[in-house]
Amino acid sequence: MTAWSSDDIARIAAADDLHIAPFRADGVTHGTLTWIWSVVVDRRLFVRAYNGPDSRWYKSAMSRHAGRITAAGSAFDVTFAAADPSLAEQIDAAYRTKYAGSPYLPPMVAPGPQAATVEITPRQAA
To answer: Which of 22, 40, 85, 109 could be 61's S-S partner, Cβ–Cβ 3.0 to 4.6 Å?
Structure first.
């Protein structure tokens, strides 16, 4: 697993503009960019599917394990993996902090989205 640079993860953590595009079935074409909430825990980037495991982008991310994100004014080729379930409470806390006051927060820390938590890491160049 490749780690984020200190500069990139700080910029991504401070931003609220992450868009995700897992590869389509051909493994080459990126899907449509979808805006999604993101949080950083211990310099690691996480996202959750609002509609849980049935979300289209989540299914693509978990089947293709790669794609692209745009965040903080930059595009990144990335890999996707299911998040470590032992981090669920820390990830919930990060969502509660970053998105406090939003009416969309309670569903994001509910069981459906929790089950669809994805860790995003930079993809190594081939």
So the answer is: 22
Length of the chain: 126
Give dist(CA 81, CA 117) in Å, integer.
9
Torsions phi, psi for 122 (to 5 deg): -65, 140
CATH code for the domain in which residue 55 is found: 2.30.110.10
Structural domain range at position 91: 6-122
Helix (H, G, I), strand (E, B) or coil at 46: strand
The pTM for the full model equals: 0.95
- Of 115, 107, 121, 105, the closest CA to residue 46 belongs to 121
Residue 1 domain-assigned?
no
**Whole-number Cα distances in Å, 68 to 9, 30, 88, 121:** 15, 7, 24, 10
- Count Cα neighbours of 31 within 13 Å in the Cβ-side half-sphere: 21
Residue with tokens 């780690």: 3
Domains of the chain: total: 1
pLDDT tens-place string over residues 81-120: 999 999 999 999 999 999 999 999 999 999 999 999 999 9
Q: Give the three-state DSSP class for 2.
A: coil
